[in-house]
Amino acid sequence: MISPNPLNAPAVETLNLVRRFGDYAAVDRVDLRVERGQFFGFLGPNGAGKSTTIKVLTGLLAPTSGEARVLGFDIARETLEVKKRIGVVPEDLNLFERLTGAEMLNFTGRMYGLRREETAERAAELLDLMELGEDPKKLVVEYSHGMKKKLSLACALIHKPEVLFLDEPFEGVDAVASRTLKDLLLRLTGRGLTVFLTSHVLEIVERLCTHIAIIAEGRLVTSGALGELRRGIAVGGDGERESAPLSLEDYFIRVVGGGAHAPDADALAWLG
Fold it and tell me: Where are the beta strands (DSSP E) in 116-189?
């Protein structure tokens, strides 16, 4: 059983977490522990259960069974307490596209209970930081995909969350916007914010994250400090290990067994 003490609790903790859709277990007995201040990467192939896990941890889906706590609060019974303390950038963003960026931020800040003046100040600062303030009358519907990602992150930060959940924040983002987001996230974790990130861009995860977990077919395959995991993988039947750390891509493929599905050399020969 997870300890319910919020003062000493990790940022995220689950025990035997299960989320089913009918007979299908999208998340199957997952045990996670993310300490406060970590930059945590949650990885897995498509359909592995990453987004479902985030939806459970952020209160969008109820767990079928098991326990899940964020900052010591039970996500099933204390959902509102959790939502007050977290920021979320979902994969589909969920922005009100007939508002301007400033209106979207002001609406979000007020929903979190910030004073009107405080909300306006924070919104202006975030718009400037994200380089979104040049055209204040521009509607969100007119934003590029990268601009929407940055606005969604600004909305997730305006109330000063303790844990930030990011579901594929770099997908479809150009190099300039990606660099802005990465630099900002590194500064925030340096100040004590916990980041829980899912991404298919393993080079970004390798650069940013200190700890990772890998999920496949709903089950947790491995978790721990990134450097320790890469050094500890066995590469031979006799338990022989690599003399140097693997890249995260190599480690990921070996752990999830992707190498076993490499295409035959003669496949699609008609294209050559």
Answer: 163-167
User: Is the Cβ–Cβ distance between 75 and 60 less than 8 Å?
Assistant: no
Res 113 pLDDT > 90: yes
Tokens of 241: 């290990």
Top pLDDT among 204 and 239 is at 204
Q: CA dist 104 to 82, 145, 152, 173, 266, Å? A: 22, 16, 9, 20, 53
Set out the domains of the chain in order of their start, with CATH numbers: 12-256 (3.40.50.300)
Of 35, 26, 34, 33, whose CA–CA distance to 65 is shortest? Answer: 26
Q: What is the pLDDT of residues 45-88, one digit of tens each?
A: 999 999 999 999 999 999 999 999 999 999 999 999 999 999 99
Q: Which residues, at least 6 apart from 182, have a Cβ–Cβ distance to it below 8 Å?
A: 204, 207, 208
DSSP type of residue 130: T
Q: How far apart are CA 191 and CA 36, in angstroms?
A: 11
> What pLDDT digit, counting tens, does each position of 34-54 carry?
999 999 999 999 999 999 999
The answer to whether 30 and 52 are in contact (CB under 8 A) is no
CA distances from 223 to 104, 213, 229, 232 (A): 37, 4, 8, 12
Three-class secondary structure of residue 125 per DSSP: helix
